[in-house]
Queue: 4 jobs
Job 1
Amino acid sequence: MAKSAKYTSDRGKTGSARQLWQQTQKIIKDANKRSINTRGTHLDKLSGFVNFVGDKFHLQKIEKIADKHVLAYIEDAYVRGLSSSTIWNTVSAVQYMAKQFPEGVSRLSDTSHLKEKYTNQQSTKNENFQKSDVQRHYINTGKNPAWTQAEIDKATQLALDMKRYDVAISIQFGIELGTRIHETFRQDRSALNKALKTGALTTKGKGGYIRDIPAQKEAQREILQLARNQTSVDHQKAFVPDNKTIKQSMKSVQNWLYNHRKKFADVPDRKLTYHGLRHAYAQREFERIEKLTGNTRIALREVSEQLGHHREWITRVYLSS
């Protein structure tokens, strides 16, 4: 009985999810074909699914779930990095619950049909992934703002030769972490130490939105350490000298890029800006994740999260190449 009681809590669930969870518990509790332990296992797996459909679709009745809800959960679960076995075990629990619905309620497809539907859905989405009009403008006019590796290397070396270490380090920071210029220049010793400890850089973007940027790769950790080494006390800004403000420091780097970009741009009329490093970061991350997962949609969503946009059409602009 103890194990059964473990799964009766609706703590942490709010709104539609809480209501759906209460309905789910009653359905599983009333099922008489399984042992108490099996019911508990099903409830354990159903918890995440109920949260998802409640929060995303705002369903009022659990009996209204359909294939589209299950397919949406599967896609979201893969994006979040859940294993295939975990995902399809959850789907199995959902199907078990659906079998308990009253007669006349539409049924879910079986596992083989759901897998076929999911595969076809992802193939269609990948085929439909096309560059937006804005992206095509960048390509057709030769105005893709993303820096090339050669431009990054030349600019960094030029800055080092000129003893503009703030420029060199901020360039590398931008390409490795995809930060906006104001996000870069707000970084202090405390934030950098936390990033090195946790493997994620917490930063505040547009509109005050706070996000965590994955920072576990060797190159990312190296630039975090290098930036931190420019400071000596907590809350000291890594890219801001004691005699300057954040705004003055940003402007100094922007002026350097403007005044010297013809020396490191692949072609003289390339209007390289600090924000172009963010475009290059997005394109690199997209290619890496797409190669890793084999799924264009997942790569697009993951990069959207890293950039802090959550709007795919904006991310597609960054992916122009």
Job 2
Amino acid sequence: MPPPSGSPAAPGLSDLGGGQGLGPQDREGRRRLPGEPPARCFARATNYSVLLVAHGSRDPRAAATTRALARTVAAVRPGLDVRVAFLELSTPSPREALCVMPRETVVVPVLLTHAYHGGVDLPAQVDGFDCTITSTLGAVSEPLLEALSRRLPGSDYDALVLAAAGTRVVSARARVEEVAAALGARLGVPCRVAYAAGATPSGAEAVAALRDEGHARVGVASYFLAPGRLYDLVTGSALAAGAVWAAPPLGASWQLARLILERVDRSVGLELDHAFAA
């Protein structure tokens, strides 16, 4: 259903400049995003709405990135009503957004780990609404590893640091370690975790440890969804300690949009073939 009067319209292809910059058509006639492989199957069922809920930040780049991600998701799934909300520091809140959205909206936490914000804060903020909350986005998966790999600015590295925000939740830190191990295995180099706050090591400490092991060119991969203070803190620390470059956050990438749609499809019970042609 269309958004109620006064609420923001669902973003779509028109938000991307009328399709400018999109790639060639796939077999179903849909324009592909830059870097997107042709798909064998894309779901057409759009009788539900999606709310992407991000953490929120005082840095305006963070909210802009979340809104760009919503546009990317809507471009991949034409006709899908995709809106955004923020847990704090930005507006609208999840409650404000859901008040003007249809019942049975699918809420996707635009968060990487299942710590306080994913496990406590978000459920509390949507309590009382007829909606479904999907799992967070940061577990090891092919779309996530592809997104992390594609963000690396070059191949001139012999080790990696996976920069993350940090948390005191042990299970959430274990997830970050799993992603670092999987990314290192995928790329054939050692990969250590570094945190901006709430845990150790810092970016500088992780770089120093790898250099002590004999690695001369340490790059920094970004386990962040959007830019902000914590991203700047941990990557700045790593660069000051001798890292050769730092990858940008995952941002509004097609791989992240694919991951979000997989969460949505699983939530609404769609059985889809997500295989991709070469």
Job 3
Amino acid sequence: MLLLEAREATGITFSRNGISSLIVRLIRTRYALIKRLFDIALSFIALIISTPLILTLSVLVKLTSPGPVFYMQTRIGKEGKPFRIIKFRTMHVNAEDGIGPVWAKPEDPRVTKLGYYIRALHLDEIPQFINIIKGDMSFIGPRPERPFFVDSFKMQMQGYTNRLMVKPGLTGLAQVRLKYDETIDDVKKKLSYDRIYIKKMCLYLDFKISVWTMGKIASKLLKLFRTNRSGTGSDNFILTEGGISYGK
């Protein structure tokens, strides 16, 4: 059932026989190269365009809480290889000392005041363009997980390692089509979407996911604007990444 729902979410079906199948196979042979070229080109462009925002956020992070501007953490990439992901710091320094990796939650005391807004709009993920250029990640793919959670999910979900067949992404089908995770069942559902993406990955699907992502960000910007106008503050935002809602 989950696989069927995920297939319907992509809006894409391919014939297993005939000319259409042959075309798909030919495109797939070039897809990886084209995807990598797009990743590199778009990341450089994005970094150049976002330079003023990067500088502004760097100053604000430094002024509003003690500690480094950027936060680096080990994540698991393609074929299970670890890499260091780069993000703007949104939590207090040593926020997980004594508690270890935990799920994020609303009104999370580990998050700085500025971090509420940065995380709500996913601005903390801008430095990941560097990870994409380095080849650790892609624009589109499954969410990069922490080793602790990968080891845990491998024990609980059959086929979980299948999502490690491709590079993790800045955004992905599961991240934009499903809600934030609250239970292990939510994680299993996202896994089914990751598996469907890997099976049907193509430039058209990547384009659709990119459009969905921009729509999701625009929706959050509108929500932030309305929240500020109503004077309710930042506590209305769910403190999660664009994917599985684990603390960092």
Job 4
Amino acid sequence: MADAVTNQAEPGDGAGHRQPGAVGADPSTATVTVTTPVVLSPEVARKRDKTFRDMLLSVGLIAVVVLLFVGLNGGFTFSPGHPDDSAPAPTADAVGEFAKANRMVPFKPAVPKDLPGDWHANSAAITNPDTVAQGTPLSVRGGWLTPGGAFIALVATNAEPSALLRSEFDQASTDAGTVKAGDADWTVTTGVRSEVAWYRTAADGITYLITGNADELAFRALAASIAGA
């Protein structure tokens, strides 16, 4: 009697078990994924287009307002990596500050006159006695830019020269002789960095200081502007 032979299929080998979705698989066990396209209704599509159009109009309106504001305020320049040397220098009434200084400080300084016409006054200030820090000299000052881009300033105070120099330069100054300019003798001393400073005390006790990085001709012109003080 012949021996009975039984073939047993291993799981997943295709003989006794078919994987779902394989060729020849039982359709009842197959997995089918159906993707349904999203279709916007005409009303929803119109609202989406209107929202996008409104956003573009808002951005455009903001851009126009910004450009108008910049144009009305002198425009702008772009200089990556470099300072903007084309921007106009500020303007100040330096001579006017000296003229009205005695309304705020207890002395009346000389008012500069006949200054070079191509100088540009760009700074001016009078010390406020009510807010100044204790020990700071009361003073009036004006600053000018020369055509070559150098800066020169005139300071007047009723304090001692040593107090003024200490306040201005925050360091000990070294006198280096005298120079005659504007019919007066000025003491030449060191300023900040490589700058030079001239100072003198008038007969009324007011001390004048000229400082900046301008050349000697500019120093002499400013000294001459208060000649007689």
